[in-house]
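#random but structural
TW: two for the price of one
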Amino acid sequence: EPEGGGRPDHVDALNRCLGKLAESARALLRMKYHDGLTAAEIARRLSRREDAVYQSLYRIHRALKGCVAQE
């Protein structure tokens, strides 16, 4: 297997796709993965229901997966 397994291109594609997201989507990802907040904590901060946060994260992940596959 080649060193890195082609990963730098994959990371570059992900970064490009993240840049295409709405700021609200990037903020949600930042709270979840950078700040380490749970869906319940995010929901409280945004005055949203916890299931709505999970649904948003699912849609964002699906959009990112599709975008990276096309890059």
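TW: number two ↓
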Amino acid sequence: TTAYSTNNSAKWTLEYNSGAGSFTLTLGTKFLTMGGVAPVVSTSASAKDILKFETDSAGNHLLVDHLKAYA
């Protein structure tokens, strides 16, 4: 479980480290993505994904970029 906090109309970044691998990321209902499809994060051991979000005035978190297996 990853906790987050933002202010309205904010830009923020989530760094997701897979550790030993084979984990999944589940987003809450306030997260909006292109086509309503949650991002698929890297599953290989020690992979790092960077997810960039913007929070709108209604408190929705919009996924604006996803860098997979970032090193």
